[in-house]
Amino acid sequence: MTDYHAPVSQMRFTIEHLADLPAVTALPDFSSVDGDTIQAVLEEAAKFAGAVLAPINWLGDRQGVKVANDAVVVPQEFSDAYVQFCQAGWPGIASNPDFGGQGLPKTVALACDEMWAAANVAFALCPELSQGAILAMDRHATDELKQTYLAKLVSGQWAGTMCLTESQAGSDLSSLTTTAEPKGDRYLVKGQKIYITWGDHPMAENIIHLVLARLPGAPAGTKGISLFVVPKYKLNADGTPGERNDVRPVSVEHKMGIHASPTCVLAFGDEGDAEGYLVGKPNEGLGAMFTMMNYMRLGVGAQGVGLADRSYQKSVAFARERVQGRAPGEKGRVAIIRHPDVRRMLLLMRSLTQASRAICYYTASCLDRTAHGTDAESVAHWQARADLMTPIAKAWCTEVAQEATEIGIQVHGGMGYVEETGVAQFYRDARIASIYEGTNGIQAIDLVGRKLLRDGGATVSAFISDMRAVDAPLANAGEDLATVRHALARGLDELVQSSTLLLTGERRDPELVSAAAFDYMMHIGTVIGGWQLARGALVALEQIAAGGDRAFLETQVVMAQFYAEHVLPRCSAHAAAVRAGSGSTMALAADHF
Ligand SMILES: Cc1cc2nc3c(=O)[nH]c(=O)nc-3n(C[C@H](O)[C@H](O)[C@H](O)COP(=O)(O)OP(=O)(O)OC[C@H]3O[C@@H](n4cnc5c(N)ncnc54)[C@H](O)[C@@H]3O)c2cc1C
Fold first, then answer.
1. pLDDT tens string 198-239
2. Could you tell me which residues come within 8 angstroms of residue 517 by beta carbon, excluding any fewer than 6 positions away?
């Protein structure tokens, strides 16, 4: 019995109408992707997530992982599920067909990523990292390296990791010290990486580590970092895994959540023989790694969506069953779903989840339109939009995932705090999403520093104009969407003010960007979420008039109304915090804290 049912209709609606699927499938690379294919993929993924991954989620949380004899041990059920995952062809659904992938749009594959994460995020991290490694190698590696590694990674036979972090180099990678010495056509990598997700495991035949390290004489800082591929097993002449490379898991972390995902300390070259190969150009490794990091950032946003949705589903089921208290006009005690405060919590979870889903899928759609676009002008447009959306998808969606999964505990009352219900696991598992792949604070600074200020606000301003275009249809929709229209217009006006303030205020207040970035990120994410729900409500009204599924469509309208009344007003608070600048934030001396 599964307790996870992927919301396929909601996902399809979001892909189709809020992630602009028709614009994606109009691209030549996706000409063969039709509605039936998408529906079949979503339904099969939903079955797999519900029947194979969800049932071992709790087991993974209880059992965890350990290191024994230089190897990480994971629950056998995870290894079995991984075999099934690969046999079903899930690892390569969006990968390059040249290496055996199915070449589906990311806009569709991301919905599957959401399902894997909702069902079992600890498991999902393994194939997710492999996909990121594939993308980075596909973009930056030599043909020889691609031929050697990519098909095996795409099939899932081999898995990938991302090795950036060292104990002194977390958010700030400029201080990393791992080295790489040339030796013939390869390099000997030496150093210790920490927190490496799925850094070792027995699920795949080989593990391909993408490692940041410094070449001899490399410049200090981020300009002296190169990228290497270091396999767990060296390859025989025929390309099969041979002797063990000098890479070993030293330990695994004991964590708050994602217990079944091994978070490893990895030692490279303790015996001086960790062989690796350069990916991309010397000293340009960080740029190449950004391909993987940006991919993962959107994936982490989708993890947030999945966990928020799973917590919502469990909370609704509980609220229907749990009988407590009385309600006006009803005889006897009622199920708690009858109480306005419980409904407030459920609708908050649901509307935040749908807003974050729409943000993530839309970001994927921008990426598809960038990677597969055919004319330079539109590629540049969608690239700028994707660059803007990525830190928002990562940071806003994971912030609201924490809010939603935390509310899920509250809906359950005392039972939420008791581990056996499983709802606490979703919160514990979601908590890391705000931290890894660049903390949300760092994402917010990236958003303001690189995506708002660098082009003088042009990309943000173009997006605001696009969002304002829903005003006229909202006005035509009349009373039904009047609150949505007003709340969205106000959120957008305040966003213009905050953007202008940040664009002009740095000279006055050098700490402004860092002090105000988080509120700006929350503000723009909240507005984009409101815009997406408004678009969904407009489509729903049209479809209701055309005789569509009333219950489903009215839900889209109510979500937009609720969000406009309960969430969009948060924009004013974020705007006020941006206006406040760094004054009180920086007023205390460090030793007065
Ligand atoms: C479970 C788990 C899995 C992970 N998986 C991987 C992985 O697979 N590969 C990998 O390479 N790494 C991985 N990481 C590492 C992760 O990406 C880092 O933990 C993260 O980037 C933050 O670095 P840090 O922990 O050193 O925190 P720090 O950088 O020390 O940050 C601490 C706090 O200071 C803030 N801060 C730091 N610098 C600034 C600044 N300039 N401006 C404003 N605020 C700042 C941060 O936002 C944060 O709140 C993982 C971590 C965990 C816990």
1. 999 999 999 999 999 999 999 999 999 999 999 999 999 999
2. 441, 444, 445, 447, 448, 449
**How crowded is the C-beta side of 270, counted as CA atoms within 13 Å?**
11
DSSP per-residue letters across 393-404: HHHHHHHHHHHH
Instruction: Work out which ligand 1 atom sits closest to the CA atom of 255.
Output: 1
What region does 210 belong to: left with phi over 0, alpha with psi -120 to 50, or beta?
beta
Distance of CA 330 to the CA centre of its chain: 43
Q: Which atom of ligand 1 is nearest to the CA of 258?
A: 1
Q: Ligand 1: does its nearest atom lie under 6 Å from the Cβ of 196?
A: yes
* Residue 517 CB–ligand 1 contact under 6 Å: no
Residue-level pLDDT at 1? 53
Ligand 1 near 133 CB (within 6 A)? no
- Location of structure tokens 């999964």: 405
Q: Rounded to whole angstroms, what are the CA distances from 90 to 1, 126, 159, 515, 558?
A: 22, 12, 13, 42, 34
C-alpha span between 405 and 307 (Å, rounded): 7
Among 436, 513, 520, 593, name the best residue to mutate to test ligand 1's pocket (greatest count of ligand atoms within 8 A of Cβ).
Answer: 436
Cβ–ligand 1 contact at 197 (below 6 Å): yes
How far away, in angstroms, is 41 Cα from ligand 1 center?
A: 35
Structural tokens at position 173? 């990678």
Q: How far apart are CA 10 and CA 114, in angstroms?
A: 12
Q: Of the residues 125, 129, 165, which should be mutated to test ligand 1's pocket, given the most ligand atoms within 8 Å of the CB?
A: 165
Q: Where are the alpha helices (DSSP H) in 322-431?
A: 340-371, 376-411, 414-417, 423-431
Atom of ligand 1 nearest to the CA of 440: 47
Query: Does residue 20 come out as left (phi exceeding 0), alpha (psi in the -120 to 50 range) or beta?
Result: left
- Asked whether the CA dihedral 195, 201, 203, 208 is positive or negative, the reply is positive
- Whose C-alpha lies nearest to ligand 1, atom 29? 171
Q: What totals of helices (H) and strands (E) does the chain contain, helices first?
A: 19, 12
Distance 444 CA to ligand 1 centre (A): 14
Whether 511 sits among the annotated catalytic residues: the reply is no
Residues 439-468: tens digit of each pLDDT: 999 999 999 999 999 999 999 999 999 999
pTM of the model: 0.98
**Does 391 contact ligand 1 (Cβ within 6 A)?**
no
Ligand 1 atom closest to the CA of 437, numbered from 1:
17
Among 38, 31, 152, residue whose Cα is nearest residue 95: 152
